Automatic annotation (TrEMBL):
Record InterPro entries: Acyl_CoA_acyltransferase, GNAT_dom, N-acetyltransferase
Signal peptide extent: none
Pfam families per record: Acetyltransf_3 (PF13302)
Key word Glycosyltransferase present: no
Protein name: GNAT family N-acetyltransferase
Coiled-coil regions, chain positions: none
Domain called N-acetyltransferase: residue spans: 12-167
UniProt entry keywords in alphabetical sequence: Transferase
PROSITE patterns named among the record's database cross-references: GNAT
SUPFAM superfamilies: Acyl-CoA N-acyltransferases (Nat)
GO MF annotation list: acyltransferase activity, transferring groups other than amino-acyl groups
Recorded superkingdom: Bacteria
Gene3D superfamilies noted in UniProt: 3.40.630.30
Amino acid sequence: MTTIPNLETERLILRAPEGHDFALYRKFYADAEGSGNYGGPLRSDEAYRKLCYDLGHWYLQGFGKWIVERREDGVAVGGCGIVHPIGWPSHELTWWLLPEYRGHGYAAEASRAVIRFACQTLRWPGVETHLRDENEAARKLAQSLGGTVIRRETFPDGVTRDVFALPEPAAEPA
């Protein structure tokens, strides 16, 4: 059985998804604006399937998405991790936050921890993320992480995206 490790940063804990996180998924996927780049908005049962997918991904591939919680109060603010859907050309760093937690640097902080995990624990030389042209916020985040466009590719869903390479970030201060 796969054990999903916790990752910790200065302000965040990234932990395994659990059944009670369904409320978080339901809230995120009900928001059309926030979940639009993730297949949303979705009905409640579809959001539940996303949670199941995220858990199953760990067990089938040995990596996946974490729930992102604030250390100070344990509030779950979103999700971040790496997925590789069957049929897609490569793995992808992905993240999402509830609207009220955007703009605080949580996505960047969580993404750096996930990239570090991929490079140090999984021994990957780097991580990719796939960005739709209209997702300007994600593009800015990828660039702030040191990402550079390495190719443009049409994915199985018919959408052509820029593929960014994301290098391993510098070690966090002690």
